[in-house]
Amino acid sequence: MWTPLTDERFGLLKLLSDSISDAYRADPRMLPNLHDADTLIVTSDYSGQHKSSRFEAYAFLFAGPAWLEWERRRLEARRIHHAEGRRLSFKKLGDAVKQRMLPDFLQAASVLPGLCVCVLVDKAIPSMFRKEGTLDLSAPDLAPYTHHRRATFEKLLRVVHMTSFFLAGLTRPGQNVVWFTDQDDIAANAGGVAELTGIWANVMSNMLQHTLGHLRCGTTECDNGTLQIEDLAALPDLVAGSLADAVNNYFAEGTLPSEPILTPPPAGVSSKAREIINWLSEEDWPLRKLVFCFEAIPDSTALSFKRIRFHGTRSIF
Predict the structure, then answer these.
(1) What are the pLDDT digits (tens) for 221-246?
(2) Fewest beta carbons less than 10 Å away: which of 22, 45, 132, 235?
(3) Superfamily of segment(s) 8-316
Protein backbone atom coordinates (compact mmCIF):
# COMPACT_ATOMS: atom_id res chain seq x y z
CA MET A 1 0.00 0.00 0.00
CA TRP A 2 3.04 2.30 -0.04
CA THR A 3 5.30 3.21 -2.97
CA PRO A 4 8.64 4.39 -1.52
CA LEU A 5 10.21 7.63 -2.70
CA THR A 6 13.59 6.77 -4.20
CA ASP A 7 14.80 10.13 -5.49
CA GLU A 8 17.44 11.57 -3.12
CA ARG A 9 16.72 15.09 -4.43
CA PHE A 10 13.65 15.24 -2.22
CA GLY A 11 15.80 15.28 0.93
CA LEU A 12 13.54 15.47 3.98
CA LEU A 13 10.67 13.77 2.18
CA LYS A 14 12.98 10.87 1.26
CA LEU A 15 13.74 10.56 4.98
CA LEU A 16 10.01 10.56 5.74
CA SER A 17 9.37 7.94 3.04
CA ASP A 18 12.04 5.64 4.47
CA SER A 19 10.49 5.98 7.92
CA ILE A 20 7.03 5.08 6.60
CA SER A 21 8.43 2.12 4.63
CA ASP A 22 10.18 0.74 7.72
CA ALA A 23 7.11 1.19 9.90
CA TYR A 24 4.83 -0.31 7.26
CA ARG A 25 6.99 -3.42 6.96
CA ALA A 26 6.76 -3.84 10.73
CA ASP A 27 3.00 -3.18 10.84
CA PRO A 28 1.09 -3.32 7.52
CA ARG A 29 -2.08 -2.14 9.33
CA MET A 30 -0.68 1.37 9.69
CA LEU A 31 -1.69 2.31 6.12
CA PRO A 32 -5.08 2.01 4.41
CA ASN A 33 -5.71 0.32 1.07
CA LEU A 34 -6.89 3.15 -1.20
CA HIS A 35 -6.21 1.34 -4.47
CA ASP A 36 -9.82 0.22 -5.00
CA ALA A 37 -11.09 3.80 -5.33
CA ASP A 38 -11.39 5.37 -8.76
CA THR A 39 -11.15 8.84 -7.17
CA LEU A 40 -9.40 9.95 -4.00
CA ILE A 41 -10.57 12.94 -1.98
CA VAL A 42 -7.91 15.03 -0.23
CA THR A 43 -8.55 17.79 2.31
CA SER A 44 -5.91 19.81 4.13
CA ASP A 45 -5.53 22.47 6.78
CA TYR A 46 -2.67 24.15 8.59
CA SER A 47 -2.01 25.62 12.03
CA GLY A 48 0.72 27.23 14.10
CA GLN A 49 1.35 30.26 11.88
CA HIS A 50 0.85 32.65 14.83
CA LYS A 51 4.00 34.12 16.36
CA SER A 52 3.65 32.37 19.73
CA SER A 53 3.75 28.90 18.15
CA ARG A 54 7.05 26.97 18.10
CA PHE A 55 5.77 24.55 15.43
CA GLU A 56 3.69 24.71 12.28
CA ALA A 57 1.29 21.82 11.66
CA TYR A 58 0.34 20.56 8.20
CA ALA A 59 -2.55 18.09 8.31
CA PHE A 60 -4.12 16.08 5.48
CA LEU A 61 -6.96 13.64 4.96
CA PHE A 62 -6.76 11.09 2.12
CA ALA A 63 -9.98 9.12 1.60
CA GLY A 64 -11.72 7.02 -0.99
CA PRO A 65 -15.33 7.91 -1.83
CA ALA A 66 -16.78 4.82 -0.05
CA TRP A 67 -18.08 7.00 2.77
CA LEU A 68 -21.80 6.25 3.07
CA GLU A 69 -21.40 5.22 6.72
CA TRP A 70 -19.39 8.37 7.50
CA GLU A 71 -22.04 10.49 5.81
CA ARG A 72 -24.81 8.85 7.82
CA ARG A 73 -22.94 9.21 11.11
CA ARG A 74 -21.82 12.81 10.61
CA LEU A 75 -25.36 13.92 9.74
CA GLU A 76 -26.71 12.01 12.75
CA ALA A 77 -24.15 13.71 15.03
CA ARG A 78 -25.23 17.11 13.72
CA ARG A 79 -28.91 16.27 14.15
CA ILE A 80 -28.58 14.90 17.69
CA HIS A 81 -26.59 17.93 18.86
CA HIS A 82 -28.68 20.47 16.92
CA ALA A 83 -25.56 21.60 15.07
CA GLU A 84 -26.97 21.86 11.56
CA GLY A 85 -25.22 24.68 9.73
CA ARG A 86 -22.43 25.12 12.29
CA ARG A 87 -18.93 24.91 10.83
CA LEU A 88 -16.39 22.99 12.89
CA SER A 89 -12.87 24.30 13.45
CA PHE A 90 -10.34 24.00 16.25
CA LYS A 91 -10.31 27.73 16.93
CA LYS A 92 -14.10 27.89 17.33
CA LEU A 93 -14.60 24.92 19.65
CA GLY A 94 -15.51 27.35 22.43
CA ASP A 95 -19.08 26.92 21.22
CA ALA A 96 -20.83 24.60 23.74
CA VAL A 97 -22.85 22.86 21.01
CA LYS A 98 -19.70 22.06 19.03
CA GLN A 99 -17.96 20.84 22.17
CA ARG A 100 -20.75 18.36 22.84
CA MET A 101 -20.77 17.19 19.22
CA LEU A 102 -16.97 16.77 18.94
CA PRO A 103 -16.66 13.18 20.33
CA ASP A 104 -19.49 11.89 18.12
CA PHE A 105 -18.11 13.74 15.09
CA LEU A 106 -14.66 12.22 15.59
CA GLN A 107 -16.10 8.73 16.04
CA ALA A 108 -18.09 9.20 12.83
CA ALA A 109 -14.84 10.07 11.04
CA SER A 110 -13.18 6.89 12.29
CA VAL A 111 -15.22 4.79 9.84
CA LEU A 112 -13.79 6.63 6.83
CA PRO A 113 -11.49 4.37 4.81
CA GLY A 114 -8.40 6.54 4.55
CA LEU A 115 -5.44 8.22 6.20
CA CYS A 116 -5.29 11.31 8.40
CA VAL A 117 -1.71 12.52 8.70
CA CYS A 118 -0.03 15.54 10.27
CA VAL A 119 3.53 16.78 9.80
CA LEU A 120 4.87 19.16 12.46
CA VAL A 121 7.73 21.45 11.42
CA ASP A 122 9.87 23.42 13.85
CA LYS A 123 9.81 27.13 13.01
CA ALA A 124 13.55 27.20 13.63
CA ILE A 125 13.84 25.42 10.27
CA PRO A 126 13.91 28.38 7.84
CA SER A 127 13.21 26.32 4.72
CA MET A 128 12.52 22.70 3.84
CA PHE A 129 13.97 23.32 0.38
CA ARG A 130 17.42 24.76 1.19
CA LYS A 131 20.10 23.36 3.46
CA GLU A 132 20.76 26.81 4.87
CA GLY A 133 18.72 30.01 5.00
CA THR A 134 15.33 30.91 3.61
CA LEU A 135 13.98 30.54 0.09
CA ASP A 136 15.71 32.78 -2.44
CA LEU A 137 12.86 34.31 -4.44
CA SER A 138 15.40 36.04 -6.68
CA ALA A 139 16.38 32.66 -8.14
CA PRO A 140 15.46 32.47 -11.86
CA ASP A 141 13.16 29.45 -11.45
CA LEU A 142 11.15 31.29 -8.78
CA ALA A 143 10.75 34.51 -10.78
CA PRO A 144 7.02 33.87 -11.51
CA TYR A 145 6.28 33.79 -7.78
CA THR A 146 7.87 37.00 -6.51
CA HIS A 147 4.39 38.41 -5.83
CA HIS A 148 4.28 36.11 -2.80
CA ARG A 149 5.74 36.87 0.60
CA ARG A 150 8.65 34.50 1.23
CA ALA A 151 6.89 32.85 4.19
CA THR A 152 3.70 32.35 2.18
CA PHE A 153 5.52 30.74 -0.72
CA GLU A 154 7.50 28.48 1.63
CA LYS A 155 4.19 27.35 3.12
CA LEU A 156 2.70 26.80 -0.34
CA LEU A 157 5.65 24.66 -1.39
CA ARG A 158 5.49 22.63 1.81
CA VAL A 159 1.79 21.96 1.38
CA VAL A 160 2.15 21.01 -2.29
CA HIS A 161 5.14 18.74 -1.69
CA MET A 162 3.51 16.98 1.28
CA THR A 163 0.26 16.46 -0.61
CA SER A 164 2.17 15.12 -3.60
CA PHE A 165 4.39 12.95 -1.41
CA PHE A 166 1.53 11.10 0.25
CA LEU A 167 -0.37 10.73 -3.02
CA ALA A 168 2.74 9.33 -4.70
CA GLY A 169 2.99 6.75 -1.93
CA LEU A 170 -0.68 5.83 -1.53
CA THR A 171 -2.08 5.83 -5.08
CA ARG A 172 -2.07 3.38 -7.97
CA PRO A 173 -1.93 4.20 -11.71
CA GLY A 174 -5.04 5.78 -13.21
CA GLN A 175 -6.67 7.11 -10.06
CA ASN A 176 -8.24 10.58 -10.08
CA VAL A 177 -7.59 13.05 -7.26
CA VAL A 178 -9.73 15.91 -6.00
CA TRP A 179 -8.01 18.14 -3.41
CA PHE A 180 -9.80 20.71 -1.25
CA THR A 181 -7.44 23.01 0.66
CA ASP A 182 -8.28 25.53 3.33
CA GLN A 183 -9.06 28.90 1.76
CA ASP A 184 -6.14 30.81 3.28
CA ASP A 185 -3.18 32.80 1.96
CA ILE A 186 -1.97 30.05 -0.40
CA ALA A 187 -5.37 29.83 -2.13
CA ALA A 188 -7.10 33.09 -1.30
CA ASN A 189 -8.98 33.48 -4.60
CA ALA A 190 -9.57 31.85 -7.99
CA GLY A 191 -6.21 33.06 -9.31
CA GLY A 192 -4.46 31.64 -6.28
CA VAL A 193 -6.17 28.28 -6.70
CA ALA A 194 -5.15 28.18 -10.39
CA GLU A 195 -1.54 28.94 -9.51
CA LEU A 196 -1.56 26.35 -6.71
CA THR A 197 -2.96 23.74 -9.12
CA GLY A 198 -0.21 24.43 -11.65
CA ILE A 199 2.56 24.11 -9.07
CA TRP A 200 0.95 20.94 -7.70
CA ALA A 201 0.79 19.33 -11.15
CA ASN A 202 4.47 20.16 -11.72
CA VAL A 203 5.60 18.69 -8.40
CA MET A 204 3.44 15.60 -8.91
CA SER A 205 4.99 14.98 -12.32
CA ASN A 206 8.45 14.92 -10.72
CA MET A 207 7.52 12.84 -7.69
CA LEU A 208 5.17 10.21 -9.09
CA GLN A 209 6.51 6.89 -10.35
CA HIS A 210 3.20 6.14 -12.10
CA THR A 211 0.56 8.07 -14.04
CA LEU A 212 -2.61 9.32 -12.39
CA GLY A 213 -5.89 10.34 -14.01
CA HIS A 214 -7.39 13.80 -13.48
CA LEU A 215 -6.06 16.20 -10.83
CA ARG A 216 -8.50 18.83 -9.56
CA CYS A 217 -7.99 21.41 -6.85
CA GLY A 218 -10.44 23.67 -5.02
CA THR A 219 -11.13 25.16 -1.61
CA THR A 220 -13.76 24.64 1.06
CA GLU A 221 -15.69 27.40 -0.69
CA CYS A 222 -16.80 24.64 -3.09
CA ASP A 223 -19.11 23.19 -0.43
CA ASN A 224 -22.68 22.93 -1.73
CA GLY A 225 -24.35 23.90 1.55
CA THR A 226 -24.54 20.39 3.02
CA LEU A 227 -21.21 20.93 4.86
CA GLN A 228 -19.94 17.69 3.31
CA ILE A 229 -16.69 19.25 2.12
CA GLU A 230 -16.50 21.51 5.18
CA ASP A 231 -16.73 18.50 7.50
CA LEU A 232 -14.07 16.56 5.60
CA ALA A 233 -11.81 19.62 5.81
CA ALA A 234 -12.64 20.01 9.51
CA LEU A 235 -10.76 16.81 10.31
CA PRO A 236 -7.28 18.09 9.32
CA ASP A 237 -8.20 21.46 10.88
CA LEU A 238 -8.93 19.78 14.24
CA VAL A 239 -5.82 17.61 14.04
CA ALA A 240 -3.47 20.45 13.08
CA GLY A 241 -4.81 22.74 15.80
CA SER A 242 -4.66 20.14 18.55
CA LEU A 243 -1.16 18.94 17.71
CA ALA A 244 0.27 22.46 17.43
CA ASP A 245 -1.27 23.13 20.87
CA ALA A 246 0.17 19.94 22.35
CA VAL A 247 3.72 20.23 20.99
CA ASN A 248 3.96 23.90 21.92
CA ASN A 249 3.03 22.95 25.47
CA TYR A 250 5.61 20.16 25.55
CA PHE A 251 8.26 22.74 24.70
CA ALA A 252 6.94 25.28 27.20
CA GLU A 253 7.29 22.65 29.93
CA GLY A 254 10.62 21.36 28.61
CA THR A 255 9.23 17.83 28.43
CA LEU A 256 9.47 16.94 24.73
CA PRO A 257 11.56 13.73 24.88
CA SER A 258 14.34 12.89 22.48
CA GLU A 259 14.13 9.12 22.99
CA PRO A 260 11.27 6.66 22.36
CA ILE A 261 9.77 6.76 25.84
CA LEU A 262 6.24 7.10 27.16
CA THR A 263 5.25 10.59 28.15
CA PRO A 264 1.97 12.04 29.37
CA PRO A 265 0.38 14.97 27.54
CA PRO A 266 1.53 18.37 28.79
CA ALA A 267 -0.45 19.74 31.69
CA GLY A 268 -1.18 22.94 29.80
CA VAL A 269 -2.86 21.29 26.82
CA SER A 270 -6.45 22.41 26.28
CA SER A 271 -9.35 20.03 26.91
CA LYS A 272 -10.36 20.24 23.24
CA ALA A 273 -6.86 19.25 22.15
CA ARG A 274 -6.85 16.38 24.65
CA GLU A 275 -10.13 15.06 23.21
CA ILE A 276 -8.67 15.04 19.69
CA ILE A 277 -5.38 13.48 20.84
CA ASN A 278 -7.33 10.68 22.52
CA TRP A 279 -9.07 10.07 19.19
CA LEU A 280 -5.71 10.04 17.39
CA SER A 281 -4.64 7.19 19.69
CA GLU A 282 -7.40 4.88 18.42
CA GLU A 283 -5.86 2.55 15.85
CA ASP A 284 -8.41 -0.21 15.12
CA TRP A 285 -10.55 1.76 12.70
CA PRO A 286 -10.66 2.14 8.90
CA LEU A 287 -9.25 5.66 9.24
CA ARG A 288 -5.52 5.40 9.95
CA LYS A 289 -3.67 8.24 11.69
CA LEU A 290 0.00 9.23 11.50
CA VAL A 291 1.95 12.08 13.08
CA PHE A 292 5.52 13.11 12.24
CA CYS A 293 7.75 15.86 13.60
CA PHE A 294 10.79 17.68 12.14
CA GLU A 295 12.76 19.54 14.82
CA ALA A 296 15.78 21.83 14.43
CA ILE A 297 18.96 20.89 16.29
CA PRO A 298 20.51 23.95 17.99
CA ASP A 299 23.74 25.27 16.45
CA SER A 300 23.47 22.87 13.53
CA THR A 301 21.90 22.61 10.09
CA ALA A 302 20.94 19.01 10.89
CA LEU A 303 17.38 18.08 11.83
CA SER A 304 15.79 15.67 14.25
CA PHE A 305 12.97 13.55 12.86
CA LYS A 306 10.49 11.39 14.77
CA ARG A 307 7.15 9.70 14.48
CA ILE A 308 4.72 10.39 17.30
CA ARG A 309 2.39 7.62 18.43
CA PHE A 310 -0.37 8.36 20.87
CA HIS A 311 -1.90 5.98 23.36
CA GLY A 312 -4.88 7.44 25.17
CA THR A 313 -3.64 10.50 26.94
CA ARG A 314 -0.03 9.34 26.67
CA SER A 315 2.24 9.34 23.63
CA ILE A 316 5.31 7.46 22.43
CA PHE A 317 8.02 9.37 20.62
Answers:
(1) 887 888 999 999 999 999 999 999 98
(2) 132
(3) Ribonuclease H-like superfamily/Ribonuclease H (3.30.420.10)
